[in-house]
Amino acid sequence: MNKKFVSWFIVIIAIATALFFVNIMARKHNAAFENKIAQTNYHQKMILFYSYTCPHCKTVEDFINQYHVAQKINFDSKEVSQNQQNVVIFSNVAQKYCHITASNLVVPLFWTGSKCIIGDQPIIHYFKTKMAK
């Protein structure tokens, strides 16, 4: 009975130690990623930030698909409701370039490389104007 207890105790300690080190490595990786994002220059790079659950984002997506916008205008799309790395990029761009605080972040948001456009109709208007040129 005593040997069994000691064996289980050793196993639990080993698992706890492994989880501790995995957690430390994950934090270092996340910190390195956030530092890299903070140092990235997003000028001249267009990005559409959206969420799967956002009805206004769906309106923009439908417009993009219907008018083949992605084939005519080069931009990245970043989903922010299920991708933590995209949230970091979204937050960084919105705060650094658009002066939007973290508590005021909304989607859809389109970063043109020089300004932020917020909302489905303003983004669609931007695409229409850009494609007309």
How would you describe what is shown here?
With 133 residues, the protein is α+β, with helices and mostly antiparallel strands. It folds into two domains: 1-39; 42-132, Glutaredoxin (3-Layer(aba) Sandwich). The chain has five helices and four strands; from the N terminus they run αβααβαββα. It has helices at 2-39, 55-66, 69-72, 84-98, 120-132; strands at 47-50, 76-79, 109-111, 116-118. It has a four-stranded mixed β-sheet with strand order 2-1-3-4. α1 packs parallel to α4 (84-98) and α2 runs parallel beside α5. It is elongated, with a radius of gyration of 22 Å. 17% of the residues are buried. The model has no long low-confidence stretch (mean pLDDT 83).
